[in-house]
Each structure stands twice: as C-alpha cells, then as structure tokens.
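S1.2 Input.
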Amino acid sequence: MRQELEDKLFSEFPEFFKSKDNHEISLMGFGFCCEDGWYDLIHKLCTDLKATLDDQDFQVIQVKEKFGGLRFYVGPVPRNIRDLIRKAEMESYRTCERCGNKGSMTIKRGYYQVLCEDCRVKAHARKIKNQFVCFPE
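S1.3 Output.
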C-alpha cells in the first residue's frame, strides 16, 4: 500500500496502531502488506471496529494479503469483533486488490490475487512487455 494511504490509516486510527514501532508486539511498523485497492475495505473495517469497541483496548498486529485474501491479525478480542474482521476478510475475496473494483481470484505461478478484469489485462500486458525488455537488441 502506498505510504500516503498507510499514513491516513495510522493517523485516523492511532489507538489501533499505537505499538506499530515495537516489533516485539506488532508487525505494523512494516506497513500494510497489500495493495491500494483494499484501502477502502480496511478503512471501513477500522471505522466499524472503532464504533463497536467503545473504550476497549485493541491492537492490530498485522495487516497483509495471504493466498489472495485480506488477513487482519489482532490480539484477543470478543466474538463480535472477530465477526467484523471475518466479514472484511471475506469481502476481500470479491475486491480487486489493486483498484478496489469488483474482482475475482487469479492464480498465476502459485501466486493468488483478486483482480478485476482491467487490472488482470494490465498485469498480463506488463508481463509481456517485461519479457521483451529482457532480450538484447
């Protein structure tokens, strides 16, 4: 995720990421390990969590893509909080990780990623272009 989007999440929800620079507690110092298309999904989840948590202590440990889906790892939380997280994780399987449009799972050489048709075509075009760059003239 682009730094400016990460910074927006860190500044809007500082209580969730207060230990981000302590690598013994949190991996958030490495940032959000996914692409920009899931920003809105993560922002909505954080907004919903903030409204539900009241004053409960809550720490986000890591946010990343794994096997094509969003993973939002947290410490121990009540079931209703886990349900909100699970809902967002499931939504990620229908959301293009690059642009946020409706997408579907793409598997290329063992790498899983949810992409919309436009991003899938662009990724394929980039791959072809890069293949030709490798050949000497």
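S1.4 Remarks. The chain has one domain: 3-133.
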